[in-house]
Write a structure and sequence with these properties.
CATH class of the largest domain: Alpha Beta
Shape: globular
Largest sheet: 8 strands, mixed
CATH architecture of the largest domain: 3-Layer(aba) Sandwich
Radius of gyration: 22 Å
Number of domains: 2
Mean pLDDT: 84
Strand order of the largest sheet: 6-7-8-3-9-10-12-11
Structural class: alpha/beta
CATH topology of the largest domain: Rossmann fold
Distance between the termini: 18 Å
CATH superfamily of the largest domain: P-loop containing nucleotide triphosphate hydrolases
C-alpha cells in the first residue's frame, strides 16, 4: 500500500492518495478581538499513501487526528503545511475534462444514516444528486440516464428500484445506509471514505452492511479509507491499518500482522480493549494520572500513559527522544523504542480478534 511512511516518498502511478508531511493546525481562539492565539496541532507531519484498489483503516482514540486526515482527503480541510494529492493533483484543485464537470474522485459514506439523508427529497433524487448537481437544465435523455443509473445503484446495494419515489423516513437504519452507499457510488468515485460506517446500526444489521461493502470493494475495485473506533470493522474491510495518536501515526502495517503481533503499546491497548481480546495487556501497570504537561517536549508523546514504560522501570530514552516511525518487519512501521518488549508481552497476554 505504502512505500515507506517514514519518509515523504515520491508519488507513483499506483498512488491514488498521497500525503506528504501534512500538518493541520486549528485555531481555538473564538474571539476575533483577542490577541491571544491558541492552536491545536491535529495532524503532525503525516506521510501516507493509499494505492488504487487497496483499503486502509485509520484507527485511534477521540482526538487522535484520524477525522482530520479524512477531511484533508475529502478536501474539506486544507493542510497548514505539507502536500495532499489525489490522483497526482492537489486535493481540492478544480479540474475539468473537456466540457464535462470536474470528476468527483472522492466520496463519503457518513456515520449517521438518519441525519445524512435530506428528509425532503425522495431517495431517487438523493442518489441522483451527485450526477445532477450543478446541472439545472438537463435534457430528457440525460434525465432518463440518471433514472436508469439510480435503478442500477439501488439494485447494486440490495434495494428494489421501485422504491426510488419513497422518502428516507420510510426506510430502516440499515436501508438508509445502503442508500448512502448508493449515493456515494453515483459519481463513480475512485475512493470512498467510510466514516464509522456501522457504528449507528444494530449489531444484526452491521454484518450485512460490512458484507455489502466488501463485495462492492471486490466487484468495483474501489479504494476505501475506513475511519473507525471498531477494530473488528477495520479488520474486515481494510488490508492495511494506520494507528494514530495525538496527530501522529504511531504504527502502520498489514492488518493481519498488526492485530496478531502489535508493536506499539497503544496499538496493543486498543486491541486488548476490543470484544474478543482478553484484556491482558490492559492489566499492565498504568500511571495514576494524566501528567502529559509535566513531560518534556522532546519526550515520546505516549510516555505519559505508557504502561510498558512503567513495566520497564521508566527508561530515560522515553523522555529524551521522541521516537520516529521506523521499519520493524516486512511492510511494518512503528514509533516505539522498545517495540520488541511489546511483542513479548502481547505473545503472553493477547488473544484478540485475528482477521483471516
Amino acid at each position: 500500500m505504502v512505500a515507506d511512511p517514514t519518509q515523504p516518498a515520491e508519488t507513483t502511478a499506483a498512488d491514488l492518495i498521497s500525503l506528504k508531511n501534512v500538518c493541520v493546525r486549528y485555531n481555538t481562539n473564538r474571539s476575533p478581538f483577542s490577541r491571544a492565539k491558541s492552536e491545536i496541532l491535529a495532524a503532525d507531519r503525516v506521510n501516507l499513501s493509499i494505492s488504487r484498489g487497496r483499503s486502509l483503516g485509520l484507527v485511534g482514540g477521540s482526538g487522535s487526528g484520524k477525522s482530520t486526515i479524512a477531511k484533508v482527503v475529502m478536501g474539506m480541510v486544507k493542510p497548514t503545511d505539507g502536500i495532499a494529492l489525489v490522483d497526482g493533483h492537489p486535493i481540492g484543485q478544480r479540474r475539468t475534462v473537456g466540457n464535462a464537470a470536474p470528476p468527483r474522485l472522492v466520496q463519503i459514506v457518513p456515520q449517521d444514516p438518519y441525519s445524512s439523508l435530506d428528509p425532503r427529497m425522495n431517495i431517487g433524487n438523493i442518489i441522483a444528486e451527485p450526477m445532477t448537481l450543478g446541472r439545472p437544465f438537463m435534457s430528457g435523455a440525460e434525465k432518463a440516464r440518471a433514472r436508469s443509473r439510480v435503478a442500477e445503484l439501488l439494485d447494486l446495494v440490495g434495494l428494489r428500484a421501485n422504491r426510488a419515489e419513497r422518502y428516507p423516513h420510510q426506510f430502516s437504519g440499515g436501508q438508509r445506509q445502503r442508500i448512502a452507499i448508493a449515493r456515494a457510488l453515483a459519481a463513480s468515485p475512485k475512493l470512498i471514505v467510510l466514516d464509522e460506517p456501522t457504528s449507528a446500526l444494530d449489531v444484526s444489521v452491521r454484518a450485512q452492511i460490512l458484507t455489502l461493502l466488501n463485495r462492492l470493494h471486490e466487484e468495483l475495485d474501489i479504494t476505501y479509507l475506513v475511519i473507525s473506533h471498531d477494530l473488528v470493522t477495520v479488520a474486515y474491510l481494510a488490508s492495511d491499518v494506520a494507528v494514530m495518536h495525538l496527530g501522529r501515526i504511531v504504527e502502520f502495517g498489514p492488518t493481519t500482522a498488526m492485530y496478531r503481533t502489535p508493536r506499539h503499546p497503544y496499538t496493543a491497548e486498543l486491541i486488548a480493549s476490543t470484544p474478543g481480546g482478553n484484556g491482558g495487556f490492559l492489566s499492565q501497570q498504568w500511571p495514576a494520572a494524566d501528567l502529559r504537561d509535566a513531560f518534556p517536549a522532546r519526550a515520546c508523546r505516549y510516555a505519559y500513559r505508557c504502561g510498558l514504560r512503567s513495566r520497564l522501570h521508566e527508561p530515560a530514552r522515553c523522555l529524551d527522544e521522541d521516537p520516529a516511525l521506523r521499519p520493524d518487519g516486512p511492510n511494518h512501521f512503528v514509533a516505539c523504542h522498545f517495540s520488541d518488549a511489546v511483542v513479548d508481552l502481547t505473545n503472553d497476554t493477547h488473544d484478540g480478534p485475528h482477521p483471516e
